[in-house]
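Sample intake sheet
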Amino acid sequence: MKKLFTLLIVIAAITTKGQQAIVIDHNCIDLSKIPNEWIDSSKTKLFIGYGHTSHGSQLISGMNAIESFFTDGTYNWSHSGGTDELHLFEGDGYGEGYLDHDCGYSGWDDETREYLDEFTECNVIIWSWCGQVNSVELSSHYLAPMEQLETDYPDVTFVYMTGHLEGEGIDGSLYLANQQIRDYCNANNKILFDFADIEKYDPDAETNYQEYYANDECNYNPLAGGTANWATDWMANNPEHELTQISQLCSSCAHSVSLNCVKKGVASWYLWARLSGWDGIITSITPYVFKEQQTDEIVVFPNPIKDNFTIVLPKEMENIVVIINDIHGKTLYNNKYEGIHKNIIIPCFNISKGINIIKVVGENNVYSLKLVK
């Protein structure tokens, strides 16, 4: 089956005409490089409408996993945009509502006009489409309608996206179609979310797997023969990496492997930050910490855990409560420790595999930490 690429449309109140080309690609997969102020800014500035079918859901799956992993709400989003949430409305899929189907179908540009005319506060629109990127005439089906939309909506900036991989290698029609979109964006200073580029590298970015006929499922053909999967192999070799841990929370990744969806979810936050005004310059890299904790004040070892483990408190504390929840909020352990303690040994119990959250609650302090099994 021919695959999918995605079109994003962004109101120019966020970005300005005469902009420089912006490319979101495989280099944009480290959340710690995005200043928190621009994550927060995207929540206040952006109203996103997203029409997609199955492959387009990969961005959403990745964002969902990220939201589940960072439990302090930093990367929260919703369809209606509540307090401290990114506003991202999903369209009607194969139905007949707003932003239904994908832009591989004729009339996607009229759907865009209908939605923007009805929801004038919307300032980001994403369209996805399956299979047509290398089977349509891009100039007439995609690029010319984009130009017309830019004319019809002079206050709207359109952000382009490439398609995903189909196992054709660097000589296939899909590569040529994606390259046509890249060339157009570079020549005309457009914003490009390079879906295919994100998909053809593992997080170490040492190998371009498209050269080995990688497809959207992350399968490729090693020189030694047979097939392999760069995503599952990388996660197996990097079990404690943050991307692997987030991927464990990815409940589904249509047509692919969870790591692929998570990378695209991270890259989406790069895009939202850039559209909100971030210049992309990394001034510092600050590791994530829960807002209610300081990670240098509580230690758990070993972590990841297997059997018993020890909590080292920052100071002696009296009458504390230790609570362990799974990532969905279900309480797995809740015990009060009377008296004064500096170290707490937690016995082996039926803790969930993957990411859990441990909290130590004292009279004046609450400490939280990710607990991995």
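Comment: Residues 344 and 352 are 20 Å apart (CA to CA). The chain is about 25% helix and 25% strand.
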